[in-house]
Amino acid sequence: MKFLSIPKYWINFCLVWAVVVHLFFLVAEMFFWQTSFVQETLLGGFTIAQKAEILAHNVGLYNGFLSAGALWGLLAMNPKIPKVKPAVFILVCAFIAGIYGSISLGRPTAFLLQSLPSIIALPLIWLDNHEG
């Protein structure tokens, strides 16, 4: 019985949203960190020590994601363990990053940009996998 027809383009839209947002952060943090756009617009109101702490926490979080990805790779080799789609893993990481980023920045922006696509896409992926 078909529960609900989920257009794949909504799932794809959320994944592209996550890609674009995280590429933006990558470019801003790696290449434009010292510009006024990043320092004043994105991180305005924080002292140098607070900015360093936020950055260090984010680096630690992303190292945790890399560790989780490596563990996922090890577990994926075991045929007894259910398979997880790469999109699900990445969206869960983005969801966590958005929550953590909003807490560390003290504003909802990271949650809206990073977690919202996951909140939309994860249930759609689950429903899409359970259509029958």
From TrEMBL:
PANTHER family: BLL0914 PROTEIN. Pfam families: DUF1304. This is DUF1304 domain-containing protein. The lineage of its organism: Bacteria, Bacillati, Cyanobacteriota, Cyanophyceae, Nostocales. It comes from Nostoc cf. edaphicum LEGE 07299. The keyword Acyltransferase does not apply. Keywords: Membrane, Transmembrane, Transmembrane helix. It comes from the Bacteria. InterPro entries: DUF1304 (IPR009732). The chain crosses the membrane at residues 9-34, 54-75, 87-103.
